[in-house]
Amino acid sequence: MKKFYLLIALMVGLLVLAACQPEEVQVEVTRVVTETVTESVEVTRVVEGEVVTEEIEVTRIVEVEAPVPEEPMEPTSLRMAILDTENSLNPYTYRSGYPGWNMLLLQYDTLLQLDTDGVPQPWLASEMDVSDDGMTITFTLRDDVTWHDGEPFTAEDVKFTIEYYLEFEHGRWTRNSRPVESVETDGDYTVIFNMASATPGFELQLAETPMLPQHVWEGVDDPDNHVFEENIGTGPYKLVETVLDQFYVMEVNEDYFAGKPQRDELVFVQFADTAGSLAALRTNAVDMIVTRATPEQINILSGVEGIDVAQGPEFTTDMINYDVERAPFNNKTVRQAMNLAINRQDLVDTVYLGAASPGSPGWIHPASPMFNDAIETTYDPDAAIALLEEAGITDSDGDGIRELDGSPISFEFLAVGTNALRLRLAELASEMLGEIGIEAVVTSVETSTWEEAVWPGFDVSQGRNYEMSMWGWSSPVQANPLRMWQLLHSSPDFGFLNLTGFANERADELSEALTTEIDPAAQAEILGELQEITADELPFILLLYPDGAYAYWSGVYDGWAFMNGQGVFHKLSFLPEEARP
Amino acid sequence: MLSESRGGRAFQYLFVLVVAISLNFFLPRMMPGNPLALLAGVDPGLMSPEGRAELMAEAGLDRSLPEQYISYWGDLLQGDFGYSYRQKEPIVDLILSRLPYTLFLAGASLVIAALVGIAAGAYSAWKRASMRDVGLLWSMITINSLPSFWLGMLLIAIVSVRFGWLPSFGAETPAAGYEGLERIGDIGKHAILPVLTLTVLTIPAVYLTTRYTMLSVLGSDFIRTARAKGAGESRVLFAHALRNSLAPVVTILALRLGFAFGGTVIIETVYSYPGIGRLMFEAVGGRDFPVMQAGFLMITIAVLLMNLLADFLYPFLDPRTKGQ
To answer: Tens digit of pLDDT for each residue in A304-327?
Structure first.
């Protein structure tokens, strides 16, 4: 019992102690120092009745005010808020496509690097030479790159990396490396990829894929669980401290080949929710929020003196998925009527307060060079009703809901409860569908349940367990328009992102052609037709593309560069202007 | 007689434990959803079907439920709690790194809430039906109905954002490099708002229980006897009335301490505090079975132990229950 009281006393004491921490008071500091001064003084004295004036030297100690010696330059630090753990942040353990992948690539480099237009440019590879048939790619590597531990980066590392990814499966890296049949080196700085087939968009895949140091990863045969002493990359920053579920600290790589990054230290603080990170930003306990600001926050934050919000179009999507294999979605007229009934501009204005672009029914973002500008986004509920009436899909019992083959068009519409924006989109879309006599009952579920319903086992060959649902893809799917076949092809081998069971012969043909076509003009033609088919057949209904909006203290750091479709949080934002490709 | 009832009680506790451990295994697996996303880390949709199957097999999730259940007990009896699907860390480490934070918050707030709640409750009962009693009662009932996240956000908005007095998140300043006393001070400073929130929300329960039992005790014969004996007012209040009112309050506090091992999801979320509550919440959200199992097991054991403690303390506080 005594111990218990002691414990109580200790805890209360601790609290009091904590509360008594003195406030930091700003005082102007000058020092008072003593100095020995030697000066000449004129003295007059009487020597033997005569007045003599002579100069003598005296030494005395005086007090003077001295300036405070300047402190050595404080290392510049930048604190950023993230929302989820990224584990040990190596290529096999990081957890999120955004911002985890971006944090990963602060430590690691890729052969090619996207510029701010989203176009791959030379990086670790200073030259890339593709043979005419697309089957051989020769890279010339930079010869001035070293790993964080001082070892040189060579062709052997590239060969090792690709072979490693092919041997130990990782969702992205392995899929990105699969087009490579074999890798040869020629000296220390030349690598040759022999491709299994010509691969359009391979440059974009290379710009995602981090290079591994052979001398560190060799012999690691359980990369998912292997514990490395430290992460060794070639990137502008090096991870120096990890406190799981609290924060990460990265230190600058002084010798970075592209030029010394602009901040000495990056601190990533992990918050449990957006409200927490917002409060921290407003008190300037963090300098930037890596997560996209929601539309309501944009206005509030822009109003805070010192905080800026970087805004721009992004390639993420908010869309409606439905199971095309079941009624009523197996009826093309119903799909088309639904598409006409949705007022996308209203969704943009009401839910996103204007910070989004209306979705193209043809999938590709209007800001993309591959956008087919013949595709129109139409809102016309009268036309939708006419379409349904014409097809005999009418409301025969007068309850406000149309019947298709005798049963009312009414279904469950899934949305994730924690995603407030998508939930509101679902509710508004449901109202719009109600206007044309289609009943979509919004059901809010939690993330895992939703994912398992729409994409069971993350394997489309396992089918689907939903009627209609809100959905969205992260920016890589949209940023590379050449990936469109993954969404549209009816076979799970090709269309492994085809979550709606869509099947269309012409789309299959075009999709297959797209997987091997390397001529840009031919690619554009195929994509143009695929967009037309998508806008007409509607395998899904794309509602909108949210804008990126990132809040930061501009006085602390102002070097952010908005990358087309992908926001400001990426490697280039930390490099000096002249080092950005 | 006595030992028999003790044996019976021990059996009862054991039975509850076995049922709880089994539920810890089956409930997570009955939820819709799939731990695959956590196992794969990122982009499970880009993996080959074979790659996904391999991941499930590595985690032992390809086996039948009875097989998994048997090996679950085997691991448990050997004290092997496994690795988290999400963090890939040994679960014991994960829990041990968060438990001190959670217990610090819960302990500090329980102690303060107990002192304030008991004092206020006793005072209220003592001044029954006075303006002060009614005022206290009403304010406690009002506080009791405040949502915890709302109170937390309000405190952040005022104390941190408006005045900048205290940090609004975390257990300590990230990457500050503090050591020794400075670090303790930093941790204490970060704990003030969460502890305050928790304390404010705990006080009403203690207050209401104390006040209620005090009132019934004050009406009983022995108090009148004490007064008749000429005992001073303060002696009547502290030595007679309060002492005899504490038993139910102790039960409440013990139970709260037991549940405290589960952390407080909402407080830990509002203040981004690295406690058990958030760990468990994220584990449930992602279907991190091993973390859920170990976490819930710890909470079960803590609640049972605290129950046991309350059972054990009762006879000291209320001799009438001795031997019952």
So the answer is: 999 999 999 898 999 999 999 999
Q: Does B112 touch chain A (CB under 8 A)?
A: yes
Whole-model pTM: value is: 0.85
CA distance A362 to A374: 10
Question: Does residue A168 contact residue A183 with C-beta atoms inside 8 Å?
Answer: no
Distance from C-alpha of B119 to C-alpha of B207, rounded to nearest angstrom:
8
Asked if ipTM goes beyond 0.90, one says no
Interface touch A449/B32, C-beta < 8 Å: yes
Alpha-carbon distance of A191 to A195, in angstroms, equals 13
Nearest to A171 among B44, B87, B94 (CB): B44
Q: Rounded CA gap, B143 and A267, in Å?
A: 38
Tokens at residue A293, please? Answer: 């600001």
**Binary contact (B83, A225; C-beta < 8 A):** yes
**C-alpha span between A301 and A311 (Å, rounded):** 12
CB A286 within 8 A of CB A81: yes
Nearest to A529 by CA among A544, A517, A543, A546: A517
From the CB of residue A128, how many other CB atoms can be counted at a distance below 10 Å?
19
> Which tokens hold the place of A383?
């036309």
Residues of B in contact with A172 (CB under 8 A): 42-43, 46
Render pLDDT for B285-302 as a digit per residue (tens, 0 to 9): 888 899 999 988 888 888
Other CB atoms within 10 A of residue A245 CB: 21
Which residues in chain A touch residue B170, judged by CB atoms under 8 angstroms apart?
246-247, 269
Q: Identify the CA nearest to A162 among candidates A145, A151, A175.
A: A175
